[in-house]
Amino acid sequence: MTRSLILTRMGATPEPGLAELPPREPGPGELRIAIDAAALNPLDAKLARGHLADWFPIVLPWVPGTDFAGRVAAVGAGVTGFAPGDEVFGRSDPVAGGAFGPAITLPAGFVARRPAGIVAATAAALVTPAAIALQALDEVAGADGPLVILGSGAVGTALVQIARHGRAVTISGRHAARLAAPGVQVLAAEGGGLTAAIAGAGVVIDTVGGPRQRQVLARLRPGARFLAIAEPLPEDAAVPAGVEAGFAALAGGGGQLDRIAGLAADGVLVPEIANRFGIGDVAAVFSTWTAGRLPARQVMVREG
Ligand SMILES: NC(=O)c1ccc[n+]([C@@H]2O[C@H](COP(=O)([O-])OP(=O)(O)OC[C@H]3O[C@@H](n4cnc5c(N)ncnc54)[C@H](OP(=O)(O)O)[C@@H]3O)[C@@H](O)[C@H]2O)c1
C-alpha cells in the first residue's frame, strides 16, 4: 500500500479519501515505521466529527490513526535499541495521527518491540484500549472493595482481562456475556443486579459515559472511587460525600507499551477483532465508523 487515508474537512460527514503522501525522514530521536496494521478507535471518529478540538487541535489535511504495528524502516539520529526490520507497535499522538497509511514517522518513545508470536493486527488492536485500561487500573490500585466495570467494548474487555488476575471483577454491558471467566461476574447493562453491584462497589470504572454517569454516582457508597473513561464528568455532576470521582485521560509513556507487550505475550490480553480490511476499503470503513455503525475492533492490514 502506498496511499494514506486523508481528511480535508471535519464534521458530521468528513468525506475521507486516499492520497499519495511522501514518507517523512525520521529526525533526531524518531523512527519511521512501515505500517503492517492499524486499528480504529472511537477517538478517531470523535476527532473526525470535529469534537474535542480544544484538547486535540487538528490541522487539515490530516491522516487519521493512532494505533499501529509494523516494522522499523529508518532510524533517526540518537535513537538506540531499534534497528531496521524490528517488529514494533505503538501509538501516535492523536493530533499527528498518521497510522492509516504506508508508513509513519514519530518519536521512538511512542514505539515498543512486538513480542514474537504477536501478529501485527493483534498488536495494533490492543494499543489504546490496553493502555487506558492499565492506566485506569493503576489509578485505582490502592482502592479496596469490588471492582465494577461498565461497558463491554474494547476498553471494558482489556480492563476485565487484566484486572481479573488480581481481584474480583464485575462487568456489565449488552455484550458482556462473552467475557465470562473465572473470577468475573457478568451482569446485564441494566437491572437490579447492576444496581446492587454499584451500591456495593469499591471502584466503578465507566467506559460508556452519557447521562447514566449521574445515576451511577448517586448510588455509590462513601469511600468508593468512580473513574470515567468515555468522557469527563459533567461540571455540575453531584458527587456524593466521601466518593472520589475523576476522569482518566490517556497519558502514555511510563513503559505502558512494554507492559502491553508482556501481557499479550502471556496470553492475558487477547483483543477481539470484528473486521480486517485493506487500504482500498479504509475510506469506506472510516465513514461508517465515524457514523457509529460498526462494532469494534476494525483493523486495517497491509495487503500482500
Ligand atoms: N479517556 C481516554 O483516554 C480514553 C481512551 C480510550 C477510549 N476512550 C473512550 O472510551 C469509550 C469506550 O471505548 P472502546 O474502545 O471500548 O469502544 P468500543 O469498543 O467501540 O465499545 C463501545 C460500546 O460498544 C458496545 N459493543 C461492544 N461489543 C459490541 C459488538 N460486538 N457489537 C456492537 N456493539 C458492541 C459496548 O456496549 P455494551 O457495553 O452495551 O456491551 C461498548 O460499551 C469511548 O468513548 C472511547 O472514546 C477514552
From TrEMBL:
It comes from the Bacteria. It comes from Tistrella mobilis. This is Enoyl reductase (ER) domain-containing protein. One of its GO terms (molecular function) is oxidoreductase activity. InterPro entries: ADH-like_N, ER, GroES-like_sf, Lipid_raft_assoc_Zn_ADH, NAD(P)-bd_dom_sf. Pfam families: ADH_N. The lineage of its organism: Bacteria, Pseudomonadati, Pseudomonadota, Alphaproteobacteria, Geminicoccales. SMART domains: PKS_ER. Residues 11-300 form the Enoyl reductase (ER) domain.
